[in-house]
Amino acid sequence: MSDRPLYCFAGGGTGGHLTPGLALAVEIQKDEPDSRILFVGSDRLLEKNLVAAAGYEHCVLPVESSESLARHPLRFAWRSWRSWREARRLLRERRPAAVIGLGGYASVPAVWAASRAGLRTLILEQNAVPGRATRILAGRTAAVCLAFEEAEAHLTRAARIELTGNPVRAEIAELARETASRDTASDQAAIPVLLILGGSQGAEGLNDAVCRVVSSAPGELEGWRIVHQTGSAQADQIASTYSERGIDHEVRPFFDDMAARYRRARVVVSRAGATTLAELACAGRPAILIPYPYAADRHQHANARVFARAGAALVVDHQASSQATAEVLAAAMARLARDREVRKRMSAATHRLARPDAARNVLAVLRSL
Fold first, then answer.
1. Using an 8 Å Cβ cutoff, are 209 and 317 in contact?
2. What is the C-alpha separation between 95 and 4, in angstroms, rounded?
3. What is the DSSP-derived secondary structure letter of residue 97?
4. Looking at domain 175-352, what is its CATH homologous superfamily?
């Protein structure tokens, strides 16, 4: 066995859970260069690819989402037991210095096993409404680090709660430290940029609403350049819509240079995932948020409300029809496109929500355990 300390990150499955863990892993190795990092989670391709791209070791457990419990109760119970047993064996063999839960069903077996083994444990909770995994594990872990203080009301009082913010990548955190001149330059750019984040996996409802706005009210975006991350399924269709309407655009399934994209954006249209909101806050960009309507416990709506109450975002809920959603979105886009003072106020409000030192804050909690 190596004498170099090992830090185990449990969970993942989605970019929203993984990205904060990857940011914290970088901070740990910056503080402790000889440390090793291990991610333990699901076999989802996105998770495997993100961890591999970061150069970290990845171990798969036979976990299954709790959503399958009602449909396949025996299979869920069998896989849950196997996952816990394999996690227990892995932790006994590898003996990590700490186990950090990232949320989601894939985090439960390893954090639970670590807690029972007396290992140092910590949970990152990204959303304003904690996920089921966090609620289950909060009383068994040494600390829970929150991105939104609103989440505390949903957790057991037995848990140690720390408001740290949601860790983001170093290049994104740096946006919050740049001078206000960047904001001025962006808002005075000759060609204003509307950045639309449909998600790396695509967000069909959001993408469709934007396309309806472009088709029915293209004049609202006259003079604007649209930069749209669509996901792979709708990229060609959306690019064709913009071309047919004569709108200056750049469409890609996925952007891997988000810091640069945020710098050039004047307004952002996005879902209300916690990691995206943490990035928007660091970038200080006024946003139109369209929460995913089927998110567990409507946590994206709760996230969006925090930004709306702070004056940092306009919120567009999905309406009964796609056309109705598009009409509300068109009105919000028109308001921000025309009113520079509104954008300026919203940008300042968004900056105030930024926690660029979140990774360092979580590390301080970890060291204190």
1. no
2. 11
3. S
4. Glycogen Phosphorylase B; (3.40.50.2000)
C-alpha–C-alpha distance, residues 235 and 290, integer Å? 19
Q: How far apart are the first and last CA of the chain?
A: 24
Q: What are phi and psi of 361, to 5 degrees?
A: -65, -45
Longest dimension (CA), the chain: 65
In sequence order, what are the residues at sequence separation of 6 or more whose Cβ sits closer than 8 angstroms to the Cβ of residue 137? 101, 107, 108, 111, 112, 115, 123
DSSP character at residue 82: H
| Nearest by Cα to 359 from 164, 176, 194 | 164
- Same topology for domains 6-163 and 175-352, yes or no? yes
Euclidean distance between CA atoms 51 and 53, whole angstroms: 5
18-32 b/e (C-beta count within 10 Å ≥ 16 → b): bbbbbbbbbbbeeee
Model pLDDT for residues 28-59, shown as the tens digit of each residue: 999 999 999 999 988 888 889 999 999 999 99
Is residue 200 within 8 A of residue 230, CB to CB? The reply is no
Q: Which helix (H) or strand (E) holds 324?
A: helix 322-338
- Specify the amino acid at residue 17: H
Exposure of 102 in the CB half-sphere (CA atoms within 13 A): 28
* Dist. CA 170–CA 324, nearest whole Å: 39
Does the model's pTM come out above 0.70? yes
Please name the residue ranges forming H helices in 217-254. 235-244
SS3 at position 99: strand
Neighbours of 248 (CB within 10 A): 13
CA angle 322, 347, 333 (to 5 degrees): 25
pLDDT tens-digit series, residues 188-222: 556 889 999 976 555 788 888 888 888 876 676 77
CATH architecture of 6-163: 3-Layer(aba) Sandwich (3.40)
Residue 274's Cβ-count burial label (10 Å; 0-12, 13-18, 19+) is buried
Q: How far apart are the C-alpha atoms of 366 and 11, rounded to whole Å? A: 17
So where are the chain's domains? 6-163, 175-352
Query: Secondary structure of 257-288 in the HEC alphabet?
Result: CHHHHHHHCCEEEECCCHHHHHHHHHHCCCEE
